[in-house]
């Protein structure tokens, strides 16, 4: 992340902090606390590292820093959590959903002997068993992460996707939600249909019994008919689903990208804060790339 990208992030932090009523009892502003946290996450360092003045440079150098205990306490406060959420919403432009959505999950594993009580055993990448968490996302066709959630790795993807879909702003009628066969569940098809979204996924099986066909609902019956009668159209639509893999690749690449969870990021609240900061940093890099490509095209 260069200096211009950090300025963009810091401006978004200050804008989000100004949305909250000012608390004159606070010695350090919410914007400073959040900026310090982003600075530590960007460098993949713990929160104690951010309280040392020697770890700052000309890009970001606060005049006064809180103590380690103050910093940890403020990061757990509801005000700071609201600022973190507002920063993510601003950078991801969540008010603009688009007519093509993609949902998927990525494992965030920890050491199998970790004592983290929130981490669980489940299937990670490649069908291998692992311990840790899973990042669930709903992305757009232009690689914005509209909604995300971190849950233990043993929880199924579909109920989490239903909760995320319920949190999205109203989507255009007829929007398509692309997913793999893990999301091909009757109740998920019905829920997406009530939200005005058409779930397009690979099928886990072709149901033929009349009772099963009646119980699954009209949305999945239409999907089965599409795969049976027009498989080429179904393949053409599903061709865009791998875009989410590129989103995960960019999320883990570049300066400040999200790699394996550090050893000091344990317990579900800390993992959520860490992943949320990494997603915000990803959107800063993505928005910079989009702006540079637009400027080059206009030149």
Task: Explain the overall architecture.
- It is a single chain.
- The protein folds into two domains: 3-93 and 260-298, no CATH class; 100-248, 2-Layer Sandwich (Nucleotidyltransferase, domain 5), CATH 3.30.420.
- Helices cover 47% and strands 15% of the residues.
- The protein has helices at residues 3-17, 30-42, 47-50, 68-75, 78-92, 157-167, 186-194, 210-215, 218-229, 231-238, 243-252, 268-298; strands at 100-110, 120-123, 129-140, 145-152, 175-179, 197-201.
- Strands 1, 2, 3, 4, 5 and 6 form a six-stranded mixed beta sheet that branches.
- Helix 1 packs across helix 5, helix 1 (3-17) packs across helix 12 (268-298) and helix 5 runs parallel beside helix 12 (268-298).
Notable characteristics:
299 residues, Nucleotidyltransferase, domain 5, single chain, alpha/beta, 2 domains, six-stranded mixed β-sheet
Q: What's the order of the H and E elements?
A: HHHHHEEEEHEHEHHHHH
SS elements, strand count: 6
Round the Cα radius of gyration to an integer and report it: 21 Å
Overall morphology = globular
The CATH architecture classification of the largest domain is: 2-Layer Sandwich
Strand content is 15-25%
Mean pLDDT: 91
Alpha-beta content class: alpha/beta
Tally of distinct domains:
2
CATH topology (level 3) name of the largest domain:
Nucleotidyltransferase, domain 5
Kindly, what is the distance between the CA atoms of the first and last residues, rounded to a whole number of angstroms?
24 Å
**How much helical structure, as a percent, in the residues?**
40-55%
Largest sheet: 6 strands, mixed
Tally of DSSP helical segments: 12
């Amino acid at each position: 992340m260069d200096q211009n990208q950090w300025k963009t992030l810091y401006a978004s932090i200050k804008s989000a902090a100004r949305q909250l009523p000012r608390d004159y009892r606070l010695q350090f502003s919410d914007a400073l606390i959040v900026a310090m946290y982003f600075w530590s996450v960007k460098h993949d360092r713990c929160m104690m590292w951010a309280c040392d003045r020697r770890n700052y440079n000309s890009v970001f150098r606060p005049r006064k820093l809180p103590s380690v205990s103050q910093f940890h306490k403020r990061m757990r406060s509801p005000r700071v959590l609201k600022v973190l959420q507002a920063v993510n919403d601003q950078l991801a432009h969540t008010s603009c959903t688009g007519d093509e959505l993609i949902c998927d999950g990525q494992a965030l594993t920890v050491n199998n002997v970790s004592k983290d009580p929130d981490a669980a055993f489940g299937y990670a990448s490649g069908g291998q068993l692992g311990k840790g968490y899973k990042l669930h996302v709903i992305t757009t066709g232009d690689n914005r992460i509209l909604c995300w959630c971190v849950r233990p790795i043993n929880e199924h993807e579909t109920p989490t996707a239903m909760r995320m879909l319920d949190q999205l702003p109203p989507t255009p009628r007829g929007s398509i939600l692309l997913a793999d066969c893990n999301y091909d569940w009757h109740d998920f098809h019905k829920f997406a249909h009530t939200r005005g979204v058409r779930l397009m996924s690979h099928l886990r099986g072709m149901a033929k019994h009349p009772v099963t066909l009646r119980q699954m609902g009209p949305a999945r019956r239409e999907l089965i008919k599409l795969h049976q009668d027009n498989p080429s159209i179904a393949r053409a639509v599903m061709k865009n689903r791998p875009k989410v893999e590129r989103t995960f690749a960019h999320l883990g690449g570049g300066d400040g990208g999200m790699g394996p969870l550090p050893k000091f990021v344990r317990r579900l609240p800390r993992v959520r804060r860490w992943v949320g900061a990494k997603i915000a940093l990803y959107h800063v890099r993505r928005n910079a790339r989009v702006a540079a490509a637009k400027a080059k095209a206009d030149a």
